[in-house]
Write a structure and sequence with these properties.
This protein has helices at about 5-10, 35, 55-65, 70-85, 100-105, 110-125, 145-155, 160-165, 180-190, and strands spanning about 45-50, 95, 130-135, 155-160, 170-175, 195-205. By secondary structure, it is α/β, with parallel strands linked by helices. It has a single domain (about 5-205), classed as Rossmann fold, CATH 3.40.50. A 4-stranded parallel β-sheet has the order 1-6-5-2, sandwiched between helices. Helix 4 (about 70-85) crosses helix 6. The longest helix has 15 residues, at about 70-85. The model has no long low-confidence stretch (mean pLDDT about 90). It binds zinc ion (ZN). Zinc ion binds next to helix 2.
Length: about 210
């Protein structure tokens, strides 16, 4: 899939309107409904996404994830890079949300790795794909309710203390729906001594 100028112009970027400082959900109400329903853990400083998960971006991410269109990763990472700079993040380490070994074998690659690696290169930040691991296999989050998503990924990650202790870490994923996966990653990183954790995703589900 090629992302032409017309496709790119259809990406509906987040951050052009006021957003919740915690969960990054837009538009910002006085009392964030999203945070009330799915309170983010203290370990996650903030969660930001580049654009809404719809239209050409949704199709592009589908190609990246399920159709081995792996070169799209470099292209799509541009929006993550813009977001990283716009948010003024200063990470010591960039880490992708890991797949379970089983899913990695099935798919052959981790789509979050294809986005996080070019981001780390452009930002000049050390990249540590091994810093976070899945400690158990989890169901696909697709089709699960918010509560089921949280239960599905609770305690599913473990971070390598040698790599993350004292570090400011940005965790990268392709899509965020309720933020349950990023929250579980942040808790694992925090438990392993990470100083600060931010979550960045390319897309945010509506
Ligand atoms: Zn919020």
């Amino acid at each position: 899939m090629r992302l032409c100028a017309d496709c790119r112009s259809q990406f509906r970027l987040l951050g052009n309107e006021a957003i919740c400082p915690r969960c990054g959900y837009a538009p910002m109400p006085t009392d964030c409904e999203n945070c009330r329903r799915h309170p983010p853990p203290a370990a996650l400083r903030s969660l930001r996404s580049a654009a809404w998960f719809e239209g050409p971006l949704r199709r592009a991410l589908h190609h990246l994830k399920y159709q081995r269109d792996i070169l799209l990763g470099d292209t799509l990472a541009e929006w993550l890079c813009d977001l990283y700079y716009r948010e003024g993040l200063a990470a010591d380490l960039i880490v992708p949300v890991p797949l379970s070994p089983q899913r990695l074998r099935e798919r052959g690659y981790n789509q979050a790795d294809l986005l996080a690696r070019p981001l780390a290169e452009w930002a000049g930040v050390p990249y540590a794909p091994g810093a976070l691991l899945r400690s158990r296999h989890t169901l696909s989050q697709v089709g699960l309710s918010a509560d089921e998503r949280r239960q599905n990924v609770a305690g599913a990650f473990v971070a390598d203390r040698r790599l993350v202790a004292g570090r400011q870490v940005v965790v990268v994923d392709d899509v965020c729906t309720t933020g349950a996966t990023l929250a579980a990653c942040a808790e694992a990183l925090h438990a392993a001594g990470a100083a600060k954790v931010w979550g960045l995703t390319l897309a945010r589900a509506l």
